[in-house]
Design a protein that fits this description.
Layout: E1 2-11, H1 18-27, E2 34-37, E3 42-46, H2 49-61, E4 68-77, H3 84-95
Antiparallel strand pairs: 1-3, 1-4, 2-3
């Protein structure tokens, strides 16, 4: 079984959010998840949906601002063993190239 999530933890403040975002990402280390951070969100992969949600909760709780907005989008593959790399590879195979801009 594979469980994927798009996680976006947004501290609501007029101050710089870098420290809080870093704390949220660092909190993921406490859990059995793989993750990759992008400029807009963090992608998580886990074998267990409960572990995935626990990781998301830890990231949310790690933020120290008075207001936090957290978005979690989950995809669970219950009958297929598939990784995030497998998903990207399938799209790149269909494209015949890497799934990123070729513009410089």
């Amino acid at each position: 079984m594979s469980v994927f999530a798009l996680l976006r933890v947004t501290p609501v403040t007029d101050d710089d959010i870098t420290e809080d975002v870093a704390a949220a990402i660092d909190a993921l280390e406490e859990h059995d998840v793989e993750y990759e951070t992008t400029p807009m969100a963090t992608i998580l992969e886990a074998e267990d949906v409960h572990e995935l949600f626990a990781a998301c909760a830890s990231a949310h709780e790690a933020v120290g601002t008075a207001e936090i907005q957290t978005l979690v989008q989950v995809e669970e593959k219950r009958e297929v063993d598939l990784s995030t790399d497998d998903k990207i590879d399938a799209v790149e195979s269909e494209l015949g190239r890497e799934a990123r801009s070729t513009q410089e």
